[in-house]
Write a structure and sequence with these properties.
It is a single chain. The chain is an alpha/beta fold. It has one domain: Rossmann fold. The protein is 28% helix and 29% strand. The chain has 6 helices and 10 strands, in the order E-E-E-H-E-E-H-E-H-H-H-E-H-E-E-E. A 6-stranded mixed sheet has the order 6-7-8-3-9-10, sandwiched between helices. It has a 4-stranded antiparallel sheet with strand order 2-1-4-5, with helices on one face. Strand 7, helix 6 and strand 8 form a beta-alpha-beta unit. Helix 3 crosses helix 4 and helix 3 runs parallel beside helix 5. It is globular and about 50 Å long. It starts with a strand and ends in a 12-residue tail after the last strand. The structure holds adenosine-5'-triphosphate. InterPro entries: AAA+_ATPase, ABC_transporter-like_ATP-bd, ABC_transporter-like_CS, MacB-like_ATP-bd, P-loop_NTPase. It comes from Mesorhizobium humile. GO terms for molecular function: ATP binding.
């Protein structure tokens, strides 16, 4: 796990609206290696989503540097970021944003039709344990199952990076565990570098590394010598 995928140096983000400035990131330095599972923890407003959005090419930093491998993201304009996002990044958000009139299979196929070297939708759905339900519509699936469809959709284009913002935020413990299980399986089988924001501190135990955020900075980084198996998680 020594190939570095992300490098951030003194990364800052300041939101300005009228007279008000919000310093969302105040000098973030980090390296994330290929295949790592990194969990971001920290109080509300500490800058986790801001960092994830900048890493995913959804937003621009104010100053500092951020690179994805040899690509300096902080030098790219909107068009460059869009192309980076399409080729390399999968996103999973708290709300699944599935299209209600399409089946699980069709929701995933929407992405595979426009990707360069995609998996087959059934392959992506099998990876998250949903092949038997692939012809169901979102309304016929539980919240956890819908989130697993969203994960299948995010990974079907074989992104190098999967960025997850509160993927279990809307789920109860049992279904949340299955979602984390699906993310860990994708990481193990495809080697997808995975960053997970969560308010659920238990989830840190499955990570290779945990970054604690406080007031726009990483206040502590902990490497887990022994990762806990997903089956042992409970909240
Ligand atoms: N578009 C925006 N405009 C202005 N301020 C913003 C914007 N987005 C985020 N902020 C502010 O930046 C700070 C960091 O927000 P961010 O969403 O990154 O925190 P977070 O750690 O992800 O919080 P949460 O856990 O609640 O999602 C907060 O003070 C927030 O209000």
């Amino acid at each position: 796990m020594s190939d570095v995928v992300f490098t951030a140096k003194d990364l800052t983000k300041t939101y300005v609206s009228g007279e008000t400035q919000v310093h969302a990131l105040r000098g973030v330095n980090l390296e994330i290696s290929a295949g790592e599972v990194v969990v971001l923890l920290g109080p509300s407003g500490s800058g986790k989503s801001t960092l994830l959005n900048i890493m995913g090419g959804l937003d621009h930093a104010t100053s500092g540097e951020l690179s994805f491998k040899d690509l300096r993201l902080t030098d790219l304009d909107d068009r460059g970021l869009t192309s980076y996002r399409r080729r390399h990044v999968g996103f999973v958000f708290q709300f699944y944003n599935l299209i209600p009139s399409l089946t699980a299979y069709e929701n995933v196929a929407l992405v595979t039709e426009i990707a360069d070297d995609p998996m087959r939708p059934e392959e992506a759905l099998a990876l998250v344990g949903l092949e038997p339900r692939m012809h169901h519509f979102p309304a016929q699936l539980s919240g956890g199952e819908q989130q697993r469809v969203a994960i299948a959709r995010a990974i079907a284009k074989r992104p190098e990076v999967l960025l997850c913002d509160e993927p279990t935020g809307a789920l109860d413990s049992r279904t949340g565990v299955r979602v984390i299980d699906a993310l860990m399986k994708v990481n193990a089988e495809l080697g997808t570098t995975t960053v997970i924001i969560t308010h659920n501190a238990i989830i840190q135990e499955v990570a290779h590394r945990v970054l604690f955020f406080s007031d726009g900075q990483i206040s502590k980084a902990v490497t887990n010598e022994a990762r806990r198996a997903v089956a042992e998680l409970q909240w």
